[in-house]
Automatic annotation (TrEMBL):
One of its GO terms (biological process) is rRNA base methylation. The keyword S-adenosyl-L-methionine applies. Pfam families: Methyltransf_10. This is U6 small nuclear RNA (adenine-(43)-N(6))-methyltransferase. Residues 490-507 have a biased composition (Basic residues).
Amino acid sequence: MSLRKFMHKRNKYKEEPNFKQLAILYPGFRKIAVTDIAGKVKINFKDVESLKILTKTLLKHDFNLDVDIPPNHLVPALPLRLNYILWIEDLLNHCGIQDLSTVHGLDIGTGAICIYPILFSNLYKTKMTCTDIDPKSIISATENIEKNNLQDLIEVILIKKESILKEALEKNEKYSFVMCNPPFFETDKGLGKKSKQEPPRNAPTGNANELEVKGGEREFILRLIEESLEYKHKIKIYTTMFGQKSSLAFLRNELTKKRIFNATWTEFCQGFTKRWGIAWTFEPKSELDLTTAPVIRTRAEVSKMKKDKSMEIVFPARKNLSCLNEVVTALKIWITELKIKIKEIQLADDDYPCWACQLIGYNDTWSHARRKRRMAMRQEALKKRRVDKSESSNEIDKLQNDESESTESEIKSVESNEPLLVCTLLVGEKSEHVDDSGDNDEDDSEEDTNNEKMLRICMLFESGTGGKLSLETLRQYLVNKLNIRDFFHKKNPSKPNKKKRKRKKIKKDQSLVVCQNKEL
Ligand SMILES: C[S@@+](CC[C@H](N)C(=O)[O-])C[C@H]1O[C@@H](n2cnc3c(N)ncnc32)[C@H](O)[C@@H]1O
């Protein structure tokens, strides 16, 4: 499946480049262009030379940049590079920086074209410093910078392998962001491993120095995280890209282990490849909250959530909750009342209308909500009555003791600065829908009898000190708010509700006593 529709919304390559126009305008491109029997102009993506000319032509046509790509070096695919750049722009905007000409960025492992710095300075006049350990890449990068007259904005540093950030931070005290496209593969395994997989759609480019590193991308990024702990606020936003899906969970886990909670991740989707990005900061959340920054997460996430039936609420549409919009509006009100942060997620899923967000709760405002409400009402009533001074002061003391007990455990989680619950919420109308895997989504349609319109809220636990239990209690809270307990009990008549079970138990106990009395 093409991932083009999940590209960043401002990525100009969301629309396929017009190859016919490029062939007319650029003789170099014309040489590699072929016209198929339907009259469509194409190029051979399995040919390295064609890829090189495509990148050079697009840089000229879309950015007025002239570059040389030395032989046997990585040919940067522009849609991915732009996706990463636009995400960084989003993160900077999110922390209040709208004018990117005022910031200074750092690009680790810039490569022979110096692709990220030349695009950043071309697009936004951003000041960039870039590093690499490969002297040949540094020479070529410098030539490309000078060719485009960008030497006032970009400085290049040849660094030693040992440290990732040290030398760049010796040159400049502070950076607004750091970006990095590290070598993906483990030394001596990378290129070999690649050949065992399905043949790549595009010709592989790049040499072992560019693509391989000891320990692979994980080791490299772990080193970057370690070093970030040393330099902390010297860089406002730390980011990196990576190429293996399995690294996502690993790296997020590593950040959590190192108690770096102000972090986020995104997907970069282009053509038929997906890459991932993570970002973290040591700034206080009051100034820069990355957990609420814009991200792109595609349907794989959505499908996963839809398959996880354990944490979902399915209920029939009804007055005031008759469609997706009404449910989302109600949820937003209830969740805001609970002082849970809502971070909307852009899903870019045109086929399945749904709304998704990440919820971040620091305080358990949803457990025992009824008890808390009752307690508040009693306290209010007591204050009003003020009849017997001694009696009421005793009772008020008792209530205050009760309250302080219940809030103490909550305060602990608030003070720890670590969220109690981070979860993803996906809300949609439960309609006939075939997902990516080809599974029909109506497999479990036991609940939607009588052709009633059904709505669905899926909840996926991400992290938090409260564990999955806190998600379950939040689910219970929403079930109560939606007032759909009766619907559940109608569906499962064999399982009476709590009140009925209690009544049944009392009846049973009473009849037992009667029997015992009779026996006596
Ligand atoms: C995958 S290439 C990325 C090139 C370019 N940034 C791009 O996206 O097309 C990785 C680059 O990192 C460089 N590199 C490897 N180890 C490094 C280190 N410790 N510090 C800086 N650069 C490093 C390599 O020489 C190579 O140019």
